[in-house]
């Protein structure tokens, strides 16, 4: 299930709610490969396992990911490590987000004016899974504000298993809440 929101006429922000990883990888690979084939650079900010699978799905679409990364056409970063660059306490810091993520978009465009960057991100989903709901909402807002400054198309992935209805808010039509998870997560290095 995909929902689209336009932040301005030049910017596109879509959300992909997915039940299976395979459907997500196909959607993301299609979104990114269409841009890469047309000379649009791409940024992926995802979990290590998802980055690897997206890389494989892009290769299946005849995208030479190694060359694209070397030439700066494809940037792949770790979601949790990228969050660490701008989270202050339990909330994303607006200036740090703009400095770090905005600079990333500028560097990816790198002298190609009027180029739209295609970005896929899982940072909001990471926050949601950690039950940092307000931080996740605030990060979505920061992405939309950043879209007013930079030309990019953003696709965010949300695992459907992260959501459940809040019975106190009206049963199945209530507000979604993160499913309780008690997992230990480790932070891996940012991948190039």
Question: In a nutshell, what does this entry contain?
Answer:
By secondary structure, the protein is an alpha/beta fold. It has seven helices and ten strands. The chain is globular.
List low-confidence stretches. 1-9, 165-192
Classified by CATH, the class is: Alpha Beta
Tell me the strand order in the biggest sheet. Answer: 1-2-8-7-3-4
CATH superfamily: P-loop containing nucleotide triphosphate hydrolases
What is the CATH T-level topology? Rossmann fold
Task: Give me the oligomer status.
Answer: single chain
The biggest beta sheet reads: 6 strands, mixed
Polypeptide structure, described:
Helix content is 41%, strand content 25%. It has 192 residues and is of the alpha/beta class. The protein has one domain (12-159): Rossmann fold. The chain has a six-stranded mixed sheet with strand order 1-2-8-7-3-4. A two-stranded antiparallel sheet has the order 5-6. Strands 9-10 form a two-stranded antiparallel sheet. A hairpin with a 2-residue loop joins strand 1 (2-8) and strand 2. Helix 1 (21-37) crosses helix 2 and helix 6 packs antiparallel against helix 7. It is globular and about 40 Å long. The two termini are 30 Å apart. The model is unreliable at 1-9 and 165-192 (pLDDT under 50).
SSE layout and pairing:
Elements: E1 2-8, E2 11-18, H1 21-37, E3 42-46, H2 48-60, H3 65-70, E4 74-78, H4 79-84, E5 87-88, E6 91-92, H5 94-109, E7 117-121, H6 123-129, H7 133-146, E8 152-159, E9 163-165, E10 176-178
Parallel strand pairs: 2-8, 3-4, 3-7, 7-8
Antiparallel strand pairs: 1-2, 5-6, 9-10
Helix pairs in contact: 1-2, 6-7
